[in-house]
From TrEMBL:
Transmembrane portions of the chain: 28-46
Keyword entries, A-Z: Membrane, Transmembrane, Transmembrane helix
Domain of life assignment: Bacteria
Regions of compositional bias (Basic and acidic residues) in chain numbering: 69-78, 132-144
Keyword Membrane: yes
Lineage of producing organism: Bacteria, Bacillati, Bacillota, Bacilli, Bacillales
Organism per entry: Metabacillus sediminilitoris
Biased composition (Low complexity): 59-68
Span list, region Disordered: 52-81, 129-148
Gene designation: spoIIIAG
Protein name stated in the entry: Stage III sporulation protein AG
Record InterPro entries: Spore_III_AG (IPR014195)
């Protein structure tokens, strides 16, 4: 009670009133206005503190191994250039096709897209962070942030570091042209196309077969 009376005495002294005089309407208005402003300031203070408290969930991570295509071999390396692959395919097809009955004097042109492709081992680490937020109206929401980090697995080989190669893929063949005697026969032409598509694993629309003209006797 003494504290409350002391508080009101201070207010009266600020308003210029003594115990014997009653406060005027104007002074009551000032008192109500001061109390209202103080209440609003205290309310905003607590509300802002609630908005700034976000719960951070520890980041969870997992590791896995993953393979991916990387650099292609350049010309002059042990695997050979594009022209070396094309020449190898051409020689093999010519040798095989000339053994087919009714087929002779075969010429082959093979067009490859690139040299071989190496697939290397990769470590993939994924993490996620969840942030919980609360607004002034009491609404809650969660914001999730995910991250992925990939690194090629490197090993020491002699004096240099090299990636771990898990697979080597042959170059993709863009097109094949076969010119041979006997290809004017529809059955022989069909046999040539089926042989090339099965051996090289290319679709039939990438294989063209034409009949070679006979050389005139001298």
């Amino acid at each position: 009670m003494n504290n409350k009376e002391g508080f009101f005495h201070k207010l009266k002294s600020l308003l210029g009133q003594s115990d014997s005089k009653k406060p005027s309407k104007y002074q009551y208005f000032i008192l109500v206005f001061v109390l209202g402003v103080a209440f609003m300031l205290v309310s905003n203070l607590f509300s802002s503190k609630d908005n700034q408290t976000n719960d951070i969930v520890p980041t969870s991570s997992s590791s896995s191994n993953e393979s991916t295509e990387v650099f292609k071999q350049e010309k002059g390396e042990k695997t050979g250039s594009i022209s070396d692959y094309e020449a190898e395919y051409e020689n093999q097809l010519k040798e095989v096709l000339e053994t087919i009955s009714g087929v002779g004097n075969v010429s082959v042109v093979v067009n490859v897209d690139s040299t071989e492709t190496k697939v290397v081992e990769k470590n993939t680490v994924t993490g996620s962070q969840v942030t919980k937020e609360t607004d002034r109206e009491g609404g809650k929401r969660e914001v999730e942030d995910q991250s992925t980090d990939e690194q090629v697995v490197i090993i020491q080989e002699g004096e240099k570091e090299v990636p771990i190669v898990v697979q080597t893929r042959k170059p993709e063949i863009r097109g094949v042209l076969i010119v041979a005697q006997g290809a004017d026969n529809i059955h022989i032409k069909k046999t040539i196309i089926e042989s090339v598509t099965r051996v090289l694993g290319v679709p039939s629309h990438r294989v063209a077969v034409a009949s070679k003209k006979m050389k005139e006797d001298e």
